[in-house]
User: Fold this.
Amino acid sequence: MIIDSHLHVWSDNPTKYPWAGKGTEEAGTAELLLETMEKSGVSKACIVQPIHYVYDNTYVRDVLKQYPKTFSAIAIMDRHRPDAAEELERLVKEDGFEGLRMHLSRPDDPAEWAAEDQYPTWNKAAELGASFLSFGPAEKQPAVEPIVARYPTVKVVLDHLGGAPFDESDPFPLLQNVLNFAKYPNVYVKFTPQAGRSNEDYPLQDTHHVYERIYDTFGPKRLMWGTDFPHIFRNIGYQNGLDLFREHMPFLTTEDQDWLFSKTALSVWKFGED
Assistant:
């Protein structure tokens, strides 16, 4: 089994599903995703609510309802709403979402995500078994470390290698910001292709050293693969996004790939299973 742990979908019908933020002409429907997954032998995927809809999770909810055994999904929610904990419970129990995404670049101070007023939402996440995604550059990741440490039973996944850069020099301080999270057993990292930050053609050899450092520090059981569909079509394409890790990173053993491509994601999300 292969699971894509990071991608986005949106409707091609803005009348039924109106944009809440800036819209896009880029194709990204669930039907296109399913067709793409089938061609590459990918069985399941975790949908991350796209920013185009901001807090309106309706389209992703409807996709979940239509394909409950194929998809898991992560919502975006206004963290300042007074009923945030209750809304998280509704998103999980009624709509089928499995957690929330933190956009560390959205507030001026990313530490707002770890403030005391967020504790009720995290308490509810611990109760529900919901997870969080942390999305932002590596320089902002330390801001959420206090709340990650406070809730050791809440699983947290660092999107896109935790935003680690590929062009910094030894002692790699920004990469170290990501590696520091390895001491928390509840933290995982997504391995997604970063062609947009590479200076080389596929297979993006100038990025491999960062993946290997994260692998060495976290171990394979806390890593999961994703493509960032449909954005992957802007550069290397979906199949290359899979083969990059299956064929071009020799430090990954066959057993490691089992964890990267499915077992880690299955340990974090339920994909419609009780």
Summary: The chain has a mean pLDDT of 97. The first helix runs from residue 30 to 40. The chain has nine helices and eight strands.
